Protein: UDP-glucose 6-dehydrogenase
Amino acid sequence: MPDTSRTKIAVAGLGYVGLSNAVLLAGHHTVAALEIDEGRVAKVAAGLSPIEDAEISKHLAERELDLQATTDAAEALAGAEFVVIATPTNYDPRTNHFDTSSVEAVIAQARVHAPAATIVIKSTIPVGFTNRMRAETGFDGILFSPEFLREGKALYDCLYPSRVIVGDHGAPAHRFADMLVDAAEKDDVPVLFTSSSEAEAIKLFSNTYLAMRVAFFNELDSYAVAHGLNPKEIIDGVSLEPRIGDHYNNPSFGYGGYCLPKDTKQLLANYEAVPQNLIAAIVESNRTRKDFIADQIIARKPKVVGVYRLVMKAGSDNFRDSSIQGIMKRVKAKGIECIVYEPALPEDDFFNSRVERDLGAFKQDADLIIANRRAPELSDVAEKLYTRDLFGVD
Structure:
């Protein structure tokens, strides 16, 4: 049986990865969340979720959680047996690698305020990063445990995980895995222990495979559109092959969200001198798809394009690197006016495009509406709608 004794765990970062793990573990352990955003800390203190995630909101409101949030590193880290790092590692186009500075900063804080704590990195990092941190700090208690969470369903995916992977074979790694499995509501969760670099590679290759699948069906859709064929019939037929299956096959404006674009580019950078063709093609395919979609929109000669939602996934409020933004930029470069309907935006302007919060006014002002995914509230303007959503699923 897993060891369920109460443990103090510090979680750095209250984005969808950090917050979902903090809420998951706080049902069984004492969790102190460290976050630089005072607004997020205040919301968690009030029992409110600072991100859009139905399960997180429900747990914060209804469950008895031993969870505190603070901006004070010493307060959060002192006495912690585990420090979970879930700070952002955005892809830096100047260096062609992830910016891991926030992770390195938390590691340094943890070594000062919780020197005996096992540090578990959940942020996505380059292959070899954990070993480098161990060497630079002289501390072997730094582990990597990849997350496989969907934005908007992050806590659900923690409660019902596809697998738990920890990049170490020692006792702390097993104890951390036990805590995740014990807090989950799914039975018989697959658990895998690997070396650290292998765990890092699992994360990048998993997301790149998903991006490859998105890119494949998007290129199928582009071919069908270019030749006047019915893409749904082709996809239905292809998906009847059991080795392919009828999942993750719905065309889109391109793979986006937060993880897939940055993780594919980081994996490509990790190859460096290693011969490859496929990984580069996956990255390039996404650019080509957005070019194709933008050309299709521009060819319709709209005067005002309405951009319906910047988010990539239903139930999410995160639109970093969403593919529809790439479409919007290409359309605007041709001098076409764009207006944006995005309730998650507090600003009245998005990159010099008007943000319209009145859906009725948005529908009236746009003569063409683009949407990465269909929504029931657009059914009355179907004649204005441009989407590649064939199956009505994310």
Q: What stands out?
A: The domain at 8-194 is CATH 3.40.50.720 (Rossmann fold). The mean pLDDT is 94. The two ends are 37 Å apart (CA to CA).
